[in-house]
Specification:
The structure holds 2 protein chains of 2 kinds. By secondary structure, chain A is α/β, with parallel strands linked by helices. Chain A is built from 7 helices and 11 strands. The chains are: A alpha/beta, B alpha+beta.
């Protein structure tokens, strides 16, 4: 039986495909609409990026590739044996440039985010009673429209923030793509899992020069 | 939710088993209990609730269903068996000479996020070995765990064995504490070498050999040869070395008993660190993404109840075992039928049914039922 790998068709897909091809591993050809694709000795699942850790945690997939940002948000209990080095970004607090952002003020502060859990943990962990509004996307327009005073979101270059008149207040977490592994698969299918980890480790070391 | 809805809907976290579902669970329980009895463990049926203080451990206190008794004392439905067995061993069985071998099988309740085979009401089958030589007891408990899984017909199971003394020893050598320690532990638990490196970078310098060892902890594992590699990496740290020696003695014994193929070394096993004091293990199998059970050594618990005894325990979750066996196609119970008994009069029918019952036949009393 082959290993099942959960991937997202989101922003990590290109880096993942490049890595798998460089590692000489099979990777499904072409786009298509199929969500379960056997390819060589691996079987691939294509799911939403926030769902990758869940499929791996439940053991539906043995392994997966997910951003550290997504792992922090879902809180899934999975193993993270390899930092793949691509998909680097930061999860930041941002607010309208020049307006300042004072969540410790007397009036209530609202923050919009796709990362509701991470945002809440960030503020509540410091005793700040910030109200977190969960959004599914286009978070950066929320302050301009009056939905929130600030946002917690990922930035790569910072251009999207600037275009929406936002500036970074602080970094909540650094992120990059991780190979994740189900706890049971790690032991019960050790040989296959170790082989995949080693193959990807070598392939990602070539690029990152580690 | 309206009152009527509450009469229909099931609250999250509880389940109900009917007919063959219940029979399948009973058959699992019978097999496991037979193994416990076979190793001369004694059954304990502890109370369903006790004073909440009994379950005051950090991990459990926030998850207990507790309530106030009429006299004002705070009671809790049992969230685990181990605390109760410790209390009984130190109380009612205090004059009984150690080692004590005790087992249990029954429900516990916990506030818990509902997740594949983990409900708020859990059925646990487990045992505690109190007192006696640590290595012998650890090896015995692991052998019992392996026999349970063999008898149940679980294919490809793995006992992933670690020792909290390795991590604890390294952390002490590094002088780590507080939030940094919590983050480090989280990263070790996730077997994330890059994350461990990141935590150890920066201010509050950690000795180089300790930093290297902590990072290697996330990678070392597998067969018993991993213990030899670990010996060279952790050799500078006496508590870690002692922990490895214990692990080696126990895994060697298991190998001598022909169980090596079911044993994997996992030195990054640091989850129950506040509770466990020595060897720890978890049971995994292909086809189920979660552990089906686990256990470990907890030498500090019994002192809380006034009878300091070293202890090791092990537990299987019935729900998860049943789910695993179902996925491996090994949970079938034989179909059975009953003999319909009727008679011209009610008295005649009943007499016939009672007679057949005396012969041990499964009967279905047919009078009054349509033919």
């Amino acid at each position: 039986m082959s290993l099942t790998v959960a991937l997202s068709k989101g922003k990590l897909l290109a880096g993942t495909e490049e890595l798998f091809r460089r590692a000489g591993l099979p990777f499904p050809n072409g786009e298509g609409r199929r969500l379960v694709v056997p390819s060589g000795e691996l079987r691939f699942l294509f799911v939403k990026d926030m769902d990758v850790p869940t499929y791996v945690e439940y053991g539906v997939a043995d392994c997966g590739i997910a951003g550290r940002d997504v792992l922090l948000e879902t809180g899934a209990d999975v193993l993270e044996p390899l930092d793949l080095g691509f998909g680097r970004c930061r999860v930041v607090v941002a607010s309208p440039a020049g307006r300042g952002f004072a969540p410790d003020g007397a009036s209530s502060t609202r923050v919009a985010s796709k990362y509701a859990r991470l945002a809440a943990a960030h503020f509540h962990g410091r005793g700040l009673g910030v109200e977190v509004v969960k959004l599914a996307g286009s978070v950066e327009i929320a302050p301009g429209l009056g939905l929130a005073d600030g946002i917690v979101d990922v930035v790569e270059t910072g251009r999207t923030l600037a275009e929406n008149g936002l500036e970074v207040i602080e970094t909540v977490a650094e992120s990059s793509a991780r190979l994740i592994v189900n706890r049971a698969s790690y032991h019960a299918r050790r040989a296959e899992v170790q082989q995949l980890v080693e193959t990807l480790r070598e392939a990602s070391a070539v690029r990152t020069g580690l | 939710m309206s009152g009527r809805e509450r009469l229909v809907q099931v609250p999250p976290g509880v389940q109900c088993f009917v007919g063959d579902e219940a029979r399948r669970r009973r058959s699992v329980e019978e097999k496991v209990v037979a193994v416990f009895e076979g190793w001369d463990y004694e059954e304990i049926i502890p109370p369903l609730f006790d004073y909440a203080d009994v379950f005051a451990g950090e991990a459990l206190a926030s998850r207990t269903y507790s309530f106030v008794a009429r006299d004002g004392s705070v009671l809790a439905l049992r969230p685990d068996f181990t605390s109760l067995l410790a209390k009984i061993a130190a109380g009612r069985l205090r004059d009984r000479q150690a080692p004590l071998r005790l087992y249990y099988s029954g429900e516990v309740v916990r506030y818990e996020p509902v997740k594949a085979g983990r409900q708020n009401e859990l059925y646990q089958m487990g045992l505690e070995h109190l007192g006696g030589d640590a290595r012998a007891a650890d090896a015995e408990v692991l052998a019992i765990a392996a026999e349970c899984l063999e008898r149940l017909g679980v294919e490809g199971f793995v006992l992933a064995v670690g020792h909290v003394g390795v991590f604890a020893g390294l952390v002490e050598a590094a002088g780590l504490a507080g939030e940094r320690l919590a983050t480090l532990r989280d990263r070790v638990e996730s077997k994330d070498p890059a994350g461990v490196r990141q935590v150890l970078q920066g201010e509050g310098g950690v000795p180089q050999e300790v930093a290297v060892a902590l990072e290697r902890l996330t990678v070392l594992g597998g067969g018993r040869e991993a213990l030899d590699q670990a010996g060279s990496v952790f050799g500078f740290c006496p508590p870690a070395r002692a922990a490895l020696d214990e692990l080696r003695a126990v895994t060697d014994a298991l190998a001598a008993a022909g169980l090596a193929r079911h044993v994997a070394v996992d030195l990054a096993e640091v989850r129950g660190l506040d509770y466990y004091t020595g060897l720890v293990f978890r049971v995994f199998a292909p086809d189920l993404g979660f552990e089906v059970g686990g256990g470990g050594r907890y030498d500090a618990l019994l002192a809380r109840f006034g009878r300091p005894l070293p202890a090791v325990g092990f537990m299987l979750g019935l729900d998860r075992v049943a789910l695993l066996l179902e996925r491996q196609g090994r949970l079938a119970v034989a179909p059975r039928s009953a003999e319909a008994v009727r008679g011209a009069s009610l008295g005649e029918a009943l007499a016939r049914a009672v007679a057949r019952r005396a012969e041990g036949v499964r009967v279905r009393f047919g009078n009054g039922e349509p033919r």
